[in-house]
Structure formats: C-alpha cells, structure tokens
Amino acid sequence: MAITKIIEIPYSLEIPVGPQHPALHEPLLLKVYADGEEVVKVQVYTGYNHRGIEKPAERNSFYRDIFIVGRVCGICNTVHANCYVRALEQILGIEPNNRAKYLRVLAMELERIHSHMLINAVMAEIIGFESLFMNIMLDRERIMKAKEILTGNRVLADYMMVGGVRRDINDEKKNKLLKLLNKTEKRVKYYKQVFMEDDTILKRLVDVGIITKTDVLKHSLIGPPARASGVKIDARASDKYDAYDEVPFNVVVRKEGDSWARMILRWDEALESINMCKYILENLPSDGNPVPDEKRLPRRFPPGEAFTRVEAPRGELTYYVMSDGKPMPYRVKIRTPSFNNIINTANVYLGHSIADVPVILVSWDPCISCMERITVLDLTTGEKKRMHLKELARGGRKWVSPRYSI
Amino acid sequence: MGKPKILDLILKNLLSKPATIEYPKKETVIEPDARGRHYADLNKCIGCSLCSIECPADAIKMTPIPPEYEAPKRNPRKLYPVINYLRCVYCYRCISVCPTNAYVSTNEYRLATTKTIYSDILSLSTLPKKTG
After folding, report:
1. B21 domain residue, yes or no
2. How close, in Å, is residue A67 to chain B by CA atoms?
3. Helix residue ranges per DSSP H, B16-92
4. From B58, which residue of chain A is nearest by alpha-carbon distance?
5. Distance from A194 to chain B by nearest Cα, in Å?
6. pTM for this one?
7. Which of A33, A74, A280, A291 has the CB geometry, 3.0–4.6 Å to A11, for a possible disulfide?
8. Which residues of A lie closer than 8 Å to B, measured between beta carbons?
9. A85 is a domain residue
C-alpha cells in the first residue's frame, strides 16, 4: 500500500543555524530540531547565495569567462579557472608546454595549502580556541605572500590562460617562494602536532560526526571528508591532469571518519602540497615560454563540448563547457564539491549535542558563509533570540533552560 | 589534563610586538609587480577599443579625448579608455590584449575612497595640452 500521510511529531525547539554571515563562508541555513540538547533532525536549505553565475558565463565571450568563473569562489579561484581553461583547451585542441603545466600545479597547490590552513583556523575559532586561530592565520599570510609573488595578487590569482599561464617566474622569485615554503612547513608540522595532542581539540573533535565508509559511498561524498573515512578518491591521482603525472605525491587516507580525522587529514595534505611545491620549484622544466601571447590566441571556437574535473581543496570540481561555434559558450555547467558534501550529510548531526553542530559543519570545510549568528526560536511562545554561533558552540548556557527544552 | 601544547607560543607572542602591520602609519610591503592601479598612456593608445571589449567587468569605457588636449595622429577616432577603478577587478586582461602595449601598470593598491575614481586624469596627464 502506498504511503498517503506522514505524521510528524512536533519538536519543541527549532534552531535555524544561518543563513547570514558576512565573513569566511557563504550563506546556508541548517534547521536543527533538538530534543533537549540532542539533535534529532537536520534540514539543509541552500540557495541563499545563488548568483546565477552560469548565465553570465553564457552571455560573455569564452575569454571573459575565464575571469568570471574565477570569481565563483574566492578561496579556490585558481582551480575553477584551471578547470574551465582546460575545457577550452580541449575544445580548441591546444596543449600548454611543460613549464606552464608545472606552474599551474604550483599555483593550485599553494591554494590548497592556504585553504586547508584557513579551515583548520576556523575550526580552532569555532571550538573557542582563538589564539590558535590567530596564529594559524598569521602563518597563512606567508602562503598568501607566496601567491602574490607567483601570480601578482594575494587571493584572486587570474593566473590561468588558454595555452599556459599569465606570468613566468625567475630565479629570484623561486628562491623567495622556497624560503616562504620552508618557513611554513615548520609551522604546519607544529600545528599538526597541536591538533594531535592538545586536550581541548581532542575533546571537541574526536568521535564527533563519524561517517562510515559505506555512508560516504552511498551519499557520494568527495574530497577530504571521503578520504578521512578511508575512501581513496582523488582526481589528481585518477585523472593526472596538468603536471600531476610527473610531480610525485601521496593520496592521504585516514580510517577514523570523525571530525578530528578530517582536520588532521587536511594538515597532512598541506604538508604533502608543500613538498609538491618544493619539488616543482626545484625541478621546473624550461621547455619554452609558458606565457602565451594573448593577442594571438584563436578568436573562434569550433563547435564541441568538453568535460573536465580538478581536485579542488574541498573535493572534486567539474566543469562542462559546450560551444556551438558562436563567440560565446552555449552552456557552462559547474558542479562544486561543497554542494555534494553539505546537502548529503544531514544525517551525521543526529545524536550529537547542539554544540557539536558547528564543529561537524566546519569539518566538511563548507564553502558557505553563514556560520556566526543564529536565531533561536521558541515555537510555543514565538520568541526569537539571536546569538553568536561561537556562543552556541560553547554550550549556549544562556538559552538552554527548561523553558526552551520542553 | 596536560599542559596545553600552544602555551609556549602564546607566552612568546605576549612578549613580542604585534604581528599585524600598523597601516596606514606603516606601509604594507608589496611586490613590485603586483597587480595594482593601471592607466593608458595616450601617446601609445590607438583607440581600438579592444580593452573595453575584452574587460570581464565592463569597467572600461571608450571616451572622446577632450578638445583642449592634442590627440596624437595614431589615434584617428580620438578615443581613449577610461577605467572605473571601483568596477575594475584588476585581472590585467586589458594590459595583455593591448596591441600597442599602451597600458602603464603600477603596484598602487591604496584605492579606498568614498568617491568614484576613474583613470581619466592619469591618462590625460600623459598628453600635452593645446597651446594658444
């Protein structure tokens, strides 16, 4: 017999987490239903930051789109541009030279290091460890400086171009980058040690938000959350795009599957990326000029389509670009990793306390900017209260009273 | 509970100077080739509008050269690009597509202002004024 009616038991407390936060993340709303302190249901609402960026991509020329797709995400702009540029190269049949490929990988790995450092810093802040947050952000500045030396800008690199990259590096810059990387490596090792041994961090992260390998495969999770649950999935290793076939690296995998494992995995990956960057700087091939003359690039794109993927810091990012022979692309389809990871993990919060919700959410490394201010809504009286997420993460003593948890 | 791992670092930081830069009292050190404010050198510009067409942010408008300035002969249409710096995303696409390499790039990053700022004053300063 088909189900005709679902009876939902009314819960006493509905806590909307999000959707507004001006810093770090994009907006997202988590509607958390709690029975006392225990989370019993989580609904994920997205769409607050829908800018319709795929539509402007269809209305602008192929080359203008390189800079438009770079603005999809601030933290991972290089990987977005790289994925799109490789799709254009597939349509045009152009292959960049080896030096350009190495430089592309260098830019993307620098981005991975600072992205992983950022999310670990955010995690430290969310659990109330602000001095650690400040220190990690301070050391992250070195990588931002390295990006500035390489690409000309701290955050938005605009480094990728059809047929190569937009800037070359010389020996002076190479030495500067190596110096910065060596300094950062020591700090990253230290922070990894802190995350491994500090009691505060262990108490808040270990065994929180466990997701099993089966669930990861069932819900198609990607990136560090999947690798922290023992699934060896990495587009860099499977696709071997750009220079990833020549630069040696290990795919880091952990088996624990909890929030702690995800954060430690990010430190391990950051260390791995630092080694890759150093290898690239020491073994940079010199087989020609990596900077194509942008005035002489083909103006017409033949009809065709391309599907490319890259391993962004948050997981696998895919682009589908279709050209119908006109000056603008017919379709640009973007699938970002956070989308997969956030909407498919509502079940992980169940059974944990409300203070663990921010910890679990940050451990997915969401590309969502929402997570500071929340509204607590008492359904019986209709009373609303606003508070910082940090307050909630610390136990939210102010509002957890018998009145709110009937 | 053991000693927090980070305690040594915190104590060290407590005694040292702040790590943040006292901007604007002390200037931020920036790379000489960082992408900052740029403008067109009108002695080289031929008014072809390619930068305006290629700009991903639509920040460049082709504007007629004012009559009090001597327009160079190589610019038959007497147009020059005016960049709206608040709209510009500093991708430097205009610089790389310019057929005559007419753009002057600087690493000037201090562009915070309450007014809309354009590149016209900087660009026109490269041209001589008409005499008489």
Report:
1. no
2. 6
3. 50-54
4. A64
5. 6
6. 0.87
7. A33
8. 60-61, 63-68, 70-71, 131-132, 135, 138, 148-149, 152-153, 156, 158, 166-167, 193-194, 197-200, 294-295
9. yes
